[in-house]
Amino acid sequence: MPDFRLSVAPMVDRTDRHFRYLVRQISRKVRLYTEMTVDQAVLRGKAERLLTFHPTEHPIALQLAGSDPKSLAEAARIGQAWGYDEVNLNLGCPSEKAQEGGFGACLLLEPLRVGEILRAMVEAVAIPVTVKLRLGVEGESYPLLARWVERYGETGVRTFIIHARSALLNLSPLKNREVPPLRHDWVHRLKVDFPHLTFILNGGVRTLEEALPHLEKVDGVMMGRAVYEDPFVLEEADRRVFGLAHRPSRLDVARRMRLYLEAEVQKGTPPWAVLRHMLNLFRGQPGGRLWRRLLSEGRSLGALDQALRLLQEKVGQEGEEENPDPKGNAAVKRTALGLSRQGI
Ligand SMILES: Cc1cc2nc3c(=O)[nH]c(=O)nc-3n(C[C@H](O)[C@H](O)[C@H](O)COP(=O)(O)O)c2cc1C
């Protein structure tokens, strides 16, 4: 049985392989999801670019979107062949593009088709097929949600990730993550009503403190925005959720990302593709803003080296929490200004 206790949500333009690699440096166990990947793009030969992941990313799930059972089954097969641990079907995206393509949240209005799709995907692969859905479309009804779960549960799908708010198709994706009210209690209730199925609660969970109590009522929690905005929100995930001794330090993670960036640049990856995901690594820490500025202005391996040197100077050799004094901070700022005058 896969471990679903804590995962990082699929997020377009966020959870690409570089950000996932960064997250993996912070938690060895948290489950990772790709960005939503449209089946046709996988089938049309873009697999290499879309599906590549680093071996350390396991456990890693491929999130697919589409509306045709055959193509989704084929895309799932390709995902399995690439080594993914799970394929997930997106039934939550409310964007116009998704509506035009007939995939994402609007598919929830076609439960028969969803059933067909899931059956085809389950038949196509040996790895778990999971779904990520909203409470409803244009409103919500617990009995209807429970019927979907019951029906989809009959296809062989065992795991349901529930973004605990409904989708409003006339609202932007951004507003759709804010406006419809969250109903975490509905996800708790699903677990009571379908104890044999696995339920992951998603939506609005900002910290590990907030996540932990849910784990007493459901099988897992998925966090999205909070992790992107401050990846070290997962600092204690391995220890507190998975019982591992591992506790990462920001500087260690930054140093490992430096090695990663160097290797990626040699393969032709533009440095910014990696650096942009590292901006929040020192969020809320002394020197954090400076870090962010140096990376965004420099956008190069050299800028990362500069930022690393400054942060290292700031926090000292002993660890990040060792030197929080504001004088040190001022010294770092002065040095940084000097550096930026030299054009670094
Ligand atoms: C920038 C962004 C992109 C997203 N892209 C996807 C996606 O590709 N697939 C998906 O199922 N959900 C996507 N979502 C929704 C998240 O997976 C998640 O359900 C939502 O943000 C609520 O969780 P949170 O409150 O922990 O962020 C996206 C969210 C954001 C902020």
What would your notes on this structure say?
This protein has an eight-stranded parallel β-barrel with strand order 1-2-4-5-6-7-8-9, surrounded by five helices. Residues 320-344 have low confidence and may be disordered. The chain contains 16 helices and nine strands. The termini are far apart. It has two domains: 6-240, TIM Barrel (Alpha-Beta Barrel), CATH 3.20.20.70; 250-341, Four Helix Bundle (Hemerythrin (Met), subunit A) (Up-down Bundle). It has 344 residues and is α/β, with parallel strands linked by helices. 47% of the residues lie in helices and 12% in strands. The longest helix is centred in the C-terminal third of the chain and has 17 residues, at 250-266. It is globular, with a radius of gyration of 21 Å. Helix 1 runs antiparallel to helix 12 (250-266) and helix 15 packs antiparallel against helix 16 (326-341). Flavin mononucleotide binds next to helix 10.
Output the radius of gyration.
21 Å
Task: Please count the helical segments.
Answer: 16
Bound molecules: flavin mononucleotide
CATH class of the largest domain equals: Alpha Beta
Give the beta-strand count.
9
What is the assigned CATH homologous superfamily of the largest domain?
Aldolase class I
Element-level helix/strand string = EHEEHEHEHHEHEHHEHEHHHHHHH
What's the number of domains? 2
Helix vs. strand class: alpha/beta
The poorly predicted ranges are 320-344
Shape: globular
- Proportion in β-strands: 5-15%
- The CATH topology of the largest domain turns out to be TIM Barrel
